[in-house]
Design goal:
Elements (H helix, E strand, L loop, with lengths): L7 E6 L2 E6 L16 E7 L2 E7 L9 E3 L4 E4 L5 H9 L4 E6 L14 E7 L8 H16 L5 E4 L6 H12 L4 H11 L7 H22 L1
Parallel strand pairs: 6-9, 7-8, 7-9
Antiparallel strand pairs: 1-2, 1-4, 3-4, 5-6
Helix pairs in contact: 2-3, 2-5, 3-4, 3-5
């Protein structure tokens, strides 16, 4: 289920409300106000959090927007899902799955897929894995209107790891990037070894960039 970019998170103390932009795919759907598709509510002490959201009835994908042009999520698996991504305007896809190759699903469609496979084995990942993904992502984002979807099977470990590397190269600080990804997709589980692998890549990337500038 895709939640759109206009999703908002509403914080309430009794009847006092304030809204801020948010996107979260882990929502228990129930009837909501007329202008919303539904809402989920949880309380901590006297403070309740109510999250209203909108979604198109035809949406079938599981993704979360990180920025206006980068989304993160789970596997595509079939042509219906690939068609939906193309209808949404995605021009580039990074698939981190070792167990499934999306490229046959994209044949004949106006979308470019990078198959960048890695196992979700909680082992250190090589710099080359991130380099391929980052190069592809930067090229996608350099294109006018380019939109990037980064995914693995469930959008929990491998895709967030790759998205983290992309945000880091785009100038985000580590903790800020992790916080953004976690807020936008609460199911993300940060494995220390994957974060460390990202930072090793970022260090190598920065050293290479400095060397080229000299």
């Amino acid at each position: 289920m895709i939640l759109m970019e206009d999703t908002v998170e509403l914080f309430c103390d009794e009847n006092q409300w304030a809204a801020c932009p948010f996107a979260d795919h882990r929502i228990t759907r129930s009837p909501g106000p007329p202008d919303c598709a539904g809402f989920a509510r949880a309380g901590v002490g006297s403070r309740a959090i109510t999250r209203f959201f909108r979604y198109p009835e035809t949406s079938i994908m599981d993704l979360s927007w990180l920025t206006e042009r980068i989304a993160l999520g789970g596997g595509i698996w079939n042509t219906d899902n690939m068609d939906e991504l193309v209808r949404m305007g995605f021009t580039h896809i990074i698939n981190m799955q070792i167990e499934f190759d999306d490229r046959p699903l994209a044949q004949g469609l106006d979308v470019t897929v990078l198959h960048n496979p890695t196992d979700d084995d909680f082992q250190p990942k090589p710099v080359q894995l991130f380099q391929r993904g980052v190069d592809f992502a930067l090229k996608a984002l350099d294109e006018e209107g380019g939109k990037l979807y980064v995914h693995c099977a469930a959008g929990v470990h491998r895709a967030p790891m790759m998205a983290l590397a992309i945000l880091r190269v785009l100038g985000w600080q580590l903790e800020d990037a992790k916080e953004l990804i976690q807020k936008r997709r609460w199911v993300v589980d940060w494995a220390d070894v994957y974060v460390e692998s990202v930072e090793q890549f970022v260090a190598a990337y920065g050293a290479a960039s400095t060397h080229k500038a000299e």
